Amino acid sequence: MLHYDEIRRRELEDPQPSVIIVGAGQCGLSVAARLKYLGVKSLVIDRFERVGDNWRKRYGSLALHDTLYSQALPYMPWPETFPEFIPAGKLANWLEHYVESLELNVWVRSQVIADRTYFDEREGKWHVTIDRDGQERAFVVDQVVIATGLCNKAKLPKPFPGQEKFAPGIIHSTQHSGGAEWKGKNVLVVGTGSSGHDISLDLSNYGANVTILQRSPTYIITIKNGIVKTLNGNLMVQGVNLDYADRITEAMPKPVTKAVLQRLVPKIAELDKDLLEGLERAGFQTYLGPDGAGSLFLSMERGGGFYFESGASQRIADGLVKVKNGEVDHFTEDSVVFKDGSSIKPDLVIFCTGYTGFKESVSETLGEEYGDQLKKIWGLDSEGEINGLYRDCGLPNAYFMSGALAINRPYSKLLALQIVAQQLGKFGPRYSIEESRKTDNYVDLSELIYH
Length: 451
Description:
The chain folds into three domains: 12-152 and 356-436, FAD/NAD(P)-binding domain (3-Layer(bba) Sandwich); 154-215 and 326-354, FAD/NAD(P)-binding domain; 219-320, no CATH class. It has 16 helices and 19 strands. It has helices spanning 4-13, 26-36, 53-56, 88-102, 194-205, 223-231, 242-251, 254-271, 273-281, 296-302, 312-317, 358-366, 368-373, 405-423, 433-436, 446-450; strands at residues 19-22, 42-45, 106-107, 110-112, 118-120, 125-132, 135-141, 143-146, 169-172, 186-190, 209-214, 219-222, 306-309, 322-325, 328-331, 336-338, 343-344, 348-351, 398-400. A hairpin with a 4-residue loop joins strand 16 and strand 17 (343-344).
């Protein structure tokens, strides 16, 4: 009789999946867990050396801005000893522990070979070739799930005039390893989303002279007043049944959610009045989000443009992180010159300018042909549903999975159920807005969502 370690070794070496999941972050692992407990075999692959490296390899001060009560993965609640706001490194280790505890089949140091991967229309199956640490392995599977997330490859703006002559360093936020080496140095941080704030705070903590460049207003909300006291309410708190909380949260139609937020967001701003007024005095521009609805619709439309205050905003209000409004015009050998004619001489410029899009991720993973077939991903359609995620993404027998921990927990279940239904031949035709509009009982809600 085989012992446990040998059984697991054989499962990992010869997984025989019917679903390939690309990406072993929280999204890919949630789907893998859901599928396992629905009786579907999957294989998760990831290019990093260890599960969790997508969090572990980022700057050391990074932590979740949402309380852990809303962030649990399926089937495994956090230990009661965990901190309320989980550091990135601890989350990385937890993801690794999650894989081991739930016995998920994950291959690290692995990636899809795009030019040897294709969907066979006649068979209705994907032929996927994987390079696992230099060894190739071919699979024929029913479905592919792309779980490479919002943060694919670093996106830098088009080079500015003179940028190639600029002697000091220029990096993207993904290359920031920590602020320790910049003590006493002048650093320009370009961008005022979460990464821009987090990195500015990290640099300031180590004694760097930080200037943050702001191009447009940013929605700022404090965690204590906005998240814990108001938005979490009685749902995302310690001891609440998360399955119940998810059903309540996700059952709310987006127009209704928006109307609720338009009432709550000004109340939160009143609670945050001292901070917001301090930011205004410092020259930092804030607003209440699109249509006064805060961060949720910013997240769904842009994937950013807001910051949950965890120290950086107060540092700006206190004048310890300087603010510059405007845009870069050009570089000289030692300066950054702005469009208003002013300039700064930084020792380092950090572009916190986001990541490439979903099309690029699919093109890199499956090939240009499939990148071109991809429908719009992220943002809301005219019915208030997220485009292309957890449902038809334009690719045959393929799904795109993305989102923060709290959103991928309920939607991983819906995605897994669709895969099971497809494999059982019970899925049927997909719902279509275009077809539904032809019926007499269709109501267009887009005006309620966007105005």
